[in-house]
């Protein structure tokens, strides 16, 4: 008969494997901080909205940096493209300005402060452990005859179903589907400064797939006893 001391490691391993499986199935929290591209994809996929920054061309704020919040989706619940899509109207001054030739450069920012994660960890939104991603690139309005346009509409109307009503209630707004064509990725997810994964690594990463090593690292990271912002 096997002694308990030999069975104990087996029990521990089984418990860990079960925890990993359960965490993946339940959509466990963000990935560990050593997987920067995955962290960026996770934040984008799980964000409901983003702040879009650009250079204003309006008379009152000419050439000043401006920003506005937009609802966002990068895919369906169980799939992610990594591309932030929005639906908006050219009557919106932000969209109007971004459609001016030569003024398409923009940045978007999304943060885990939107989720319950930072609250549960007692992280202030400015705390770097309440991770945020900044995507910089070119604002692109999608051609309504393309497959990407159809996909963007499905992504946004699935995640934000009220949007479909806007097109019915305000058809004169000439609603557009648009995206940020990503040129740079910047992540702030822990102490020590910003990180810059490549765009290629960003698109190669799966936002919700964790390995056993990742899960163990993640569990340690999530239970960091510090709860006061440090620089």
Automatic annotation (TrEMBL):
GO terms for cellular component: cytoplasm; extracellular space. The keyword Signal applies. Residues 31-203 form the CREG-like beta-barrel domain. It comes from the Eukaryota. Pfam families: CREG_beta-barrel. Keywords: Signal. Residues 1-25 form the signal peptide. The keyword Cell membrane does not apply. Gene3D superfamilies: Electron Transport, Fmn-binding Protein, Chain A. This is Protein CREG1 isoform X3.
């Amino acid at each position: 008969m096997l002694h308990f001391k030999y069975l104990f490691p087996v029990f521990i391993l089984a418990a860990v494997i079960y925890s990993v499986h359960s965490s993946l199935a339940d959509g466990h929290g963000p990935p560990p901080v050593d997987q920067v591209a995955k962290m960026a994809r996770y934040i984008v996929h799980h964000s409901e909205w983003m702040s879009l920054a650009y250079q204003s061309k309006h008379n009152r704020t000419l050439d000043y940096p401006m920003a506005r919040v937009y609802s966002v989706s990068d895919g369906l619940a169980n799939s992610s493209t990594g591309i932030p899509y929005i639906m908006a109207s050219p009557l919106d001054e932000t969209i109007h300005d971004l459609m001016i030739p030569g003024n398409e450069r923009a940045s978007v920012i999304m943060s885990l402060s939107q989720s319950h994660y930072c609250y549960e960890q007692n992280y202030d939104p400015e705390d770097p452990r309440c991770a945020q991603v900044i995507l910089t690139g070119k604002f692109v309005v999608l051609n309504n005859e393309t497959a990407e346009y159809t996909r963007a509409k499905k992504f946004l109307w699935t995640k934000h179903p009220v949007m479909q009503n806007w097109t019915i209630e305000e058809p004169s707004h000439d609603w557009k589907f648009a995206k940020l064509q990503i040129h740079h990725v910047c992540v702030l997810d822990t102490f020590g400064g910003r990180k810059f994964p490549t765009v290629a690594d960003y698109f190669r990463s799966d936002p919700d797939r964790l390995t056993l090593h990742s899960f163990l690292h993640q569990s340690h990271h999530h239970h960091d006893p510090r709860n006061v912002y440090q620089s």
